[in-house]
Amino acid sequence: MPRYLAPCPVGTLVEITETFQSIYAEGKQQKIQAVEPMQRVGMKRNIFYRRVKEYEANL
């Protein structure tokens, strides 16, 4: 899957990596608990869910 850049609140760009994509897939399949994906990618809850929304919009 191609990677894309998602805008960050401070105007920088955050790359949605293959790691994010695989962790997202595990979370969607409920293989891991809700907070674990955020911890694994090192994002706070609000940023993580913003990236999920952007990622889902580009699927």
Could you please describe the fold and organization of this structure?
- The protein is of the alpha+beta class and 59 residues long.
- It has one domain.
- It is 53% helix and 14% strand.
- The protein is built from three helices and two strands.
- The chain has a two-stranded antiparallel sheet with strand order 1-2.
- Strand 1 and strand 2 form a beta hairpin.
- The longest helix has 13 residues, at 45-57.
- It is globular.
Walk me through the topology.
Elements (H helix, E strand, L loop, with lengths): L3 E4 L5 E4 L1 H11 L6 H7 L3 H13 L2
Antiparallel strand pairs: 1-2
Helix pairs in contact: 1-2
Distance between the termini: 10 Å
Number of domains: 1
Q: Describe the biggest sheet?
A: 2 strands, antiparallel
Q: How many strand segments?
A: 2
User: Cα-atom Rg, whole angstroms?
Assistant: 11 Å
The number of helical elements comes to 3
The pLDDT mean sits at 77
Q: Report low-confidence residues grouped into runs of 5 or more.
A: none
Briefly note the structural class of the backbone. Answer: alpha+beta
